[in-house]
């Protein structure tokens, strides 16, 4: 932390975008852990909730009372409109010069946040992406089917698009805000395929991308929103990128 403070000199602000759909049981713990792991960092959390029927927003409003509306921003949408567009929406409300994107279900543990920040400061990278597919990273708790889906999605995209990044579908990332705005404006996908499109486009545009190892632990509460239709969308997105980039 001391190290972090030394490099920060008080100028950087991090906006952490967290998309939520039915994360009532996870969001409070996530917020608690982010505050715990970033004690000396200037940050805000932007929760983009898509009208979760489980009452996620009620929990977020309670958290705002505890932590303050300047630290926890609730930027809701009326219904489930997809992960990719949730980031676009969240970005409009960011006041930081750096943006972190992470899941609400604790699969992206906030303990890794300092390593993203440190890596960015050491290298001056425009993007730092968490990767499960290098030494020190990994996946816990997934079924064989889900592991194969993720590996398959990555191998396929690596082979066809060779972007030079080891984890294309992961969504735990830190961006320089201006870079995120630039890359996001050229992205067309709306669902889960968004992660892959973002990193491929960023790499094509020549942005400096660094990686930090993370271990992705499957959620304890609730269920994944990744369904068969998202996989079809992914394959379509892959083909689209293949012919357009
Ligand atoms: N606002 C909003 N949030 C959503 C939506 N769909 C999902 N989310 C939120 O997005 C996060 C990820 O959703 P999960 O359903 O937990 O995804 P996952 O199956 O665990 O997939 C994760 O790993 C994949 C890599 O293998 C990633 O590709 C994916 O983005 C995600 O990080 C969670 O915080 C969830 O509440 C949506 O339509 N709208
Ligand atoms: Mg998840």
Automatic annotation (TrEMBL):
Keyword annotations: Endoplasmic reticulum, Glycosyltransferase, Transferase
Enzymatic reactions: a di-trans,poly-cis-dolichyl phosphate + GDP-alpha-D-mannose = a di-trans,poly-cis-dolichyl beta-D-mannosyl phosphate + GDP
Major location category of this protein: endoplasmic reticulum
EC number: 2.4.1.83
Annotated Pfam families: Glycos_transf_2
Subunit text: Component of the dolichol-phosphate mannose (DPM) synthase complex.
Protein name, as recorded: Dolichol-phosphate mannosyltransferase subunit 1
